[in-house]
Amino acid sequence: MADYIVGLTGGIGSGKTTVANLFAELGITLVDADVIARDVVMKGSYGLAQITQHFGDDILLDDGNLDRAKLREKIFHNDAERVWLNSLLHPLIRETMLKQCKQAQSNYVIMVVPLLFENGLDSLVDRTLLVDISPELQQQRTMSRDSVTAQQVKNIISSQATRAEKLSKADDVIDNQGEISALKCKVEALHNFYLKLSSNS
């Protein structure tokens, strides 16, 4: 069981997934908030049952899975509904993340949370690691990856904590503006550092 948790975060397009996968290659268990957020509303889940009860059956696709686009539409302009949904899902996600951390067999765990600071989830981890790139590069990478407009990317970036806020809160920072080979060296150095910290905890 892993007792030491490192919270990995970064804005959209920063390369969180690439960094997380490099830790996974070193044998470290990943607990991914995005994956868990999908799992807690899967067909047959408690989360989906609650959502269906609240919004009605038209929130479902023909195959019984959640219609995410329709759900987004319902909460987009409705703060009360968004608050309701968050207060249902956030505790479920948090509980599942902690359970997965407990079950992990590696010396420490990387908990991948896009909105780690924004949602106060840094309180669950022993140390925080930020993947940092400039807003310009963030915009460029996200536009080419997700085929979205510059304005859409700007809207997403502005809904997240600012770069300065994240940098001031993070214990460790990986600058991801260079080559993947440089990134590997940085991850390996941090991995050795986290192994030391976890063995002392």
From TrEMBL:
Chain segments annotated as transmembrane: none
Origin: domain of life: Bacteria
InterPro entries found in the cross-reference section: Depp_CoAkinase, P-loop_NTPase
CDD domains membership: DPCK
Reactions performed catalytically: 3'-dephospho-CoA + ATP = ADP + CoA + H(+)
NCBIfam families: dephospho-CoA kinase
Protein name: Dephospho-CoA kinase
Taxonomic source organism: Shewanella schlegeliana
